[in-house]
Specification:
heterodimer; A: about 230 residues; alpha/beta; Rossmann fold; 6-stranded mixed β-sheet; 4-stranded antiparallel β-sheet; 7 helices; B: about 950 residues; alpha+beta; 6-stranded mixed barrel; elongated
Chain lengths: ~230, ~950
């Protein structure tokens, strides 16, 4: 199976006051179409790993290959462009732009890629329909529930058909009903071939994933390694 | 201390006392406030700098107004009259010297005055036969050396002092102003001409010599203008009379503290004068006291103008304070949320913010007072320059800077109180938070709707007040209309889309403000007018800002229409435009600051054009003006006749006496007013063009026909059409109605027919001549030739171009006085943008992180933030230009016959250039910082 992400000997050190080694030589392969859950106690390095794999943070050592490109060798602009084309993000706090409507939020990645106005709107509405929010397209985030906001965030992550969707605690701010809805959405998307990597504290969510890796003190304790 | 200041100080003590008590009783909160205030020095400095704007502006305006007021009173009341407090006159008539002698020897009079002196005052012309220079419009002041002592000694430029007793026959003194004009020196031979109708004996040529040049102090500053001081006998010889036309009286005390004594002496003098049984009606006038009042009245307009303009800057400053408090609240939101979670009540949270704000505002008050003094000095200096331009070389006007402790206290107290009030209101707003959202730094959920019943009651009350306001004129009508628009807007809100609602509300507010300004009278009471003007300006700015913000999507649509190639740009512009359009209050706070200031500058840009030099119009086709106040005839020299196409000779009487005007502008107790006598056929060839007409007249011709027909109508260069002016005629006060105003600077005075001006037949007769020269003739050369050849007659000849340039310089100097305040306002606007930029970096870290994560490059973030700042400034500038130009047009329309309408694009362009440069400078830093945010850090950020 094609490995969409390959990480070898990844190290990340934070130097603000004291030196904290957040990642201590991570090796990880993620095949295309996998739904991978990263679990572990607080401070174990889950989010840092996800941010490094997604190119949101630079690494101090090792290499991360995504679609054959070594993230460490790319400039900030190139990494950003790569994210725009090939990645989608879902965050715990939804992080929708409060002043934009649902559909306008979803359109942003398409517009960034230079898609035309009509095409962008059609695709955004289609994606909102896919997450069950076509009727809420013109609502602003503060007019939506937490679950709805997170589904809009998922639509934004998917609208430009990225290679990987990175999700950091996507259900952390949701009630159980909304959690269920979002998870079902992820599972459906994954069944349709979408690669999804998510960090979670929730064992039930992790259990639903095809593979789970467990982190502790900056290392993969269980489930990692080259695939 | 004035009652108003006492009230302010009491309010200050109560407000800051309450804050102090809060800080003492809640020591923990007091300590917390103090620590927050000094925690980050850079931020503290920025906040204090922002908060000082109100105090600085108010102080600057008050200090400048004091300087103008005190300088005016000092010059026109005290220096103008010196030790003279009262006069006995018969208004342009002569009477026996015996009147002065009998008053001087009256024991009753002697008890209440220091001195009584016979004198002569006449307007005429003078020629310096040695320097070969002449001039008109001089005053011949005859004084009695024998009784001069109580009126002070003339101090000559050499340092010598004289009461005139040592002056030889024919020896005279010149005022400094006149000496400068004539380039005269001691020893020069002089010829003074005055034509006094009905004088007892013909005026004889008197050989006069300049004995000295008097410094502008004591009696040497008398009239402030061009004066020949002559011993009474010499003055009588020049005038061809044995009589006098004034008795000067000095009350006990110095120049500045004798007004009360003069007031006590006035009834005694009136009784004694009446008992003289003179066949000529003699009037006792408290000239200095009246002049003090007139001088104070005449500065009401300038004080109102300064306070009005400063109110605009203070309003801009208030918006800045709200932005600053918002910035602090954003930065501390999660901390405040934790405090609320730990049990701190909302009212105490407000108390905490207000205590911190009070520390800032006191520091800002002290700093602002200092800055205000400096700015006030600058504004005052500009007024000094403007007054000097208006006075030209005709007056000895010394402008001085006044700094009064009471004024500084008023500026400090008012500024800090206003700042504290804004801080309190802003803190109440920012203290509304959902605790959990604040702690986790999540967006605030939408507020719950308030009780419908309470809202309905409020709207109904507002509506009733609005209707009541509409029934009254002036400010209540403006406020009533605004209230009604807001009520209707609130009612219609749920029925309209947000965009339509904002657009209609904005249009209605701006339209109503413009309508009120269009219908208001700029010549009415200055305080009322400026109150209406300031509120209308702020309301129209608010309305148009609302309209512009609500329709910003048009910009995105335009970019969208450019097609696929601009899709990326559209993505970059979308967030900033959305932030601007969907947070209209916040956008308005920043754009409004720019809009108000650009609005004022645009208004002045219109004024610069509508008052621009228009040679042809101003001169009415004439090229040279010749004035002679000493001779009723002017014969043009043969040398220039070939160049002259036509000329008009206007008999001109040199009235000198009290002038009362509505509003007090230009009035005084001893004003020289040329009275231009026009024929009944004046409408066929009017001597001057009109600047403003009374609304009753639809053309300049209609005005002149009415002036020829109706002896109560005149044309004047001061006051405004429809206003009254009163001069002292032979048999008492004569009141005229101003039918129209002519352009200032060509023939300044009053135009009327012989019948109209008949009460002033005893005033000296001179002539004013306007000359039209051939197209290829050199008008300045013609003027020089006339002046040179007729110098013996003491005529003044000037090219119209020169007069126009002088008048234009004076106008521009006056407008430039407001410039300092407006530039302070620009600084406020620029500071606001910088603060908004910093606020954005703090507040939108999450958003910036997300945008970076989904593919915004660093330069996109920078571009987005700078676009937001630029669009903010652009909306402000656009709204300001629309408001300023519209108001300028409305003022232009009110002046029925101004020259053409236009805008000084260069001055607006300069301001815009400055704004955009400043925008670039102040937003570059925050934008760069925002672009450097690590997306991962920003997304997970919570303080």
């Amino acid at each position: 199976m094609e490995q969409i992400v390959k990480a070898r000997g990844v190290r990340k050190v934070y130097r603000s006051g004291s030196v904290v080694e957040a990642l201590r030589g991570i090796d990880l392969d993620i095949p295309a179409g996998e739904l991978l859950a990263i679990v572990g106690p607080s401070g174990s390095g889950k989010t840092t790993l996800l941010n490094c794999l997604a190119g949101l943070e630079t690494i101090d050592d090792g290499e991360i290959l995504i679609g054959g490109a070594n993230l460490a060798e790319l400039s900030d602009d190139d990494r950003t462009e790569y994210r725009a084309k090939s990645m989608g993000f879902v965050f715990q706090a939804f992080n929708l732009l409060p002043v934009l409507s649902a559909v306008e939020n979803v359109e942003i990645p398409m517009l960034l890629l230079g898609a035309g106005t009509k095409e962008t709107r059609a695709r955004a509405l289609e994606t909102l329909e896919m997450v069950g929010l076509a009727d809420r397209a013109s609502h602003r985030p503060d007019q939506l529930s937490g679950g709805e906001q997170q589904r809009v965030a998922v639509a934004r992550a998917l609208v430009h058909k990225p290679a990987v969707v990175w999700a950091d605690e996507p259900t952390g701010n949701l009630d159980s009903e909304s959690t269920q809805a979002v998870m079902e959405l992820f599972l459906r998307l994954n069944r349709e071939g979408q690669t999804i990597v998510m960090v979670t504290h929730n064992p039930q969510i992790a259990a639903a994933a095809a593979r789970t890796i467990t982190m502790r003190d900056g290392r993969i304790e269980d489930g990692g390694g080259p695939g | 201390m004035s009652p108003a200041l006492l009230v302010l100080v009491t309010l200050f003590v109560l407000a800051y006392g309450a804050v102090g008590i809060f800080a003492v009783r809640r020591r923990l909160l007091g300590r917390l406030a103090l620590r927050e205030a000094v925690r980050r020095r850079g931020q503290t400095l920025l906040v204090v700098a922002g908060l000082m704007v109100g105090t600085a502006t108010i102080t600057a305006a008050l200090v400048a107004a004091d300087s103008v007021g005190d300088s005016t009173v000092d010059a026109f009341a005290y220096n103008n009259w010196g030790y003279v407090d009262l006069t006995v006159t018969a208004t342009n008539q002569f009477f026996p010297r015996d009147v002065a002698d009998r008053l001087a020897t009256s024991p009753a009079v002697a008890r209440v005055v220091d001195g009584v002196s016979a004198g002569i005052e006449l307007v005429g012309s003078v020629s310096d036969l040695t320097a070969r220079q002449g001039t008109s419009g001089i005053t011949l002041v005859g004084f009695d050396p024998g009784s001069q002592r109580p009126f002070g000694a003339f101090v000559l430029t050499t340092g010598r002092e004289t009461y005139g007793q040592d002056l030889a026959p024919g020896a005279v003194l010149l005022s400094r102003v006149l000496a400068d004009k004539l380039q005269a020196k001691p020893g020069d031979r002089l010829h003074v001409s005055v034509e006094v109708p009905g004088s007892a004996r013909p005026a004889l040529p008197v050989d006069l010599r300049v004995a000295g040049i008097a410094r502008s102090e004591g009696p040497g500053a008398y009239t402030l203008g061009s004066v020949v001081f002559a011993p009474l006998a010499t003055a009588q010889d020049i005038a061809g009379t044995d009589l006098i036309n004034i008795v000067r009286i000095s009350a006990p005390g110095g120049i500045r503290d004798s007004v009360q004594a003069g007031h006590r002496a006035a009834p005694v003098l009136a009784r004694e004068t009446k008992s003289l049984g003179s066949p000529i009606r003699l009037a006792v006038s408290e000239v200095k006291a009246r002049e003090v009042k007139t001088a104070k009245d005449s500065t009401v307009f300038i004080r109102a103008l300064l306070v009005g303009m400063s109110a605009l800057v203070v309003a801009a400053g208030a918006a800045l304070v709200i932005n600053l408090i918002g910035m602090l609240a954003e930065e501390r939101r999660s901390r405040m949320g934790v405090l609320r979670a730990l049990g701190l009540k909302r009212s105490r949270l407000v108390g905490l913010s207000v205590t911190e704000g009070a520390i800032y505002s006191l520091a800002a008050g002290v700093l602002g007072t200092g800055v205000g003094i400096a700015a006030g000095r600058l504004v005052a200096a500009r007024f000094g320059r403007a007054f000097a331009e208006f006075a030209g070389s005709d007056f000895d006007f010394t402008f001085h800077f006044s700094l009064k402790p009471a004024t500084l206290l008023a500026g400090f107290v008012l500024g800090t109180l206003l700042t504290l009030a804004v801080i309190f209101l802003a803190s109440r707003r920012t203290s509304r938070m959902t605790i959990t959202a604040a702690i986790r730094n999540l967006p605030e959920p939408p507020p719950e709707r308030k009780s419908r019943r309470w809202r309905t009651v409020r709207l109904a009350a507002f509506g009733v007040l609005g209707v009541l306001g509409l029934t009254a004129p002036g400010f209540p009508r403006l406020a009533g209309g605004i209230a009604l628009i807001l009520v209707l807007s609130a009612v219609a809100r749920s029925r309209l889309s947000s965009r339509t609602h904002s657009t209609l509300t904005g249009l209605a507010l701006a339209g109503w403000s413009f309508a009120i300004i269009g219908g208001s009278d700029p010549n009415a009471d200055a305080n009322t007018f400026f109150l209406v003007f300031v509120v209308a300006m702020l309301t129209s700015v608010f309305g148009l800002t609302l309209l512009a913000s609500a329709n910003l999507h048009v910009a995105e649509t335009v970019v969208g229409l450019l097609g696929r190639a601009f899709a990326g740009l559209r993505a970059i512009l979308r967030p900033p435009l959305a932030y601007l359009s969907r947070r209209p209050v916040r956008t308005g706070l920043t754009t409004g600051v720019f809009a108000v200031i650009v609005g004022m500058l645009s208004l002045f840009a219109v004024f610069f054009v509508i008052f621009r030099p228009d040679y042809q119009r101003f001169g009415n086709g004439y090229d040279v003006r010749v004035l002679s106040t000493g001779s009723a005839t002017v014969e043009l020299p043969a040398e220039v006749r070939a160049d002259v196409i036509r000329f008009i000779d206007i008999p001109t009487r040199g009235y000198i006496g009290p002038l009362k005007t509505q509003g007090g502008f230009g009035g005084g107790e001893r004003v020289f007013v040329p009275l231009f006598q026009v024929g009944n056929d004046v409408a066929e060839a009017p001597p001057v063009r009109l600047d403003q007409r009374d609304k009753r007249f639809d053309s300049d011709r209609a005005v002149w026909e009415a002036v020829a027909r109706n002896p109560s109508l005149v044309v004047a260069d001061f006051g405004s059409p429809g206003q009254k002016l009163t001069l002292q005629g032979r048999d008492g006060p004569v009141t005229f109605t101003i039918a129209a105003a002519q352009a200032f600077g060509l023939l300044d005075g009053v135009f009327g027919t012989e019948r109209t001006l008949s009460p002033f037949q005893s005033a000296p007769l001179g002539a004013s001549v306007l000359v039209d020269v051939r197209d290829n003739a050199d008008a300045p050369r013609v003027a020089r030739t006339i002046e040179r050849d007729l110098f013996g007659q003491g005529v003044d000849a000037d090219s119209i171009q020169k007069l126009l340039d002088t008048a234009d310089r004076a106008n521009r100097a006056f407008f430039s006085t407001i410039d300092v305040l407006m530039r302070m306002g620009l600084v406020v606007g620029i500071l606001s943008l910088g603060i908004v930029g910093m606020r954005v970096v703090t507040e939108r870290r999450h958003v910036i992180g997300v945008l970076r994560a989904v593919g915004y490059k660093r330069r996109h973030v920078m571009l987005g933030l700078m676009t937001e700042a630029t669009v903010t400034a652009t909306i402000g500038a656009a709204v300001g230009i629309v408001v300023g130009v519209t108001m300028g047009y409305l003022f232009y329309r009110q002046s029925a016959s101004q020259p053409g309408f236009g805008i000084d694009l260069a001055s607006i362009g300069g301001v815009l250039g400055l704004i955009y440069l400043a925008v670039l400078l102040v937003t570059l830093g925050p934008a760069w910082r925002a672009s450097r945010l690590s997306p991962a850090e920003a997304v997970r950020y919570s303080e």
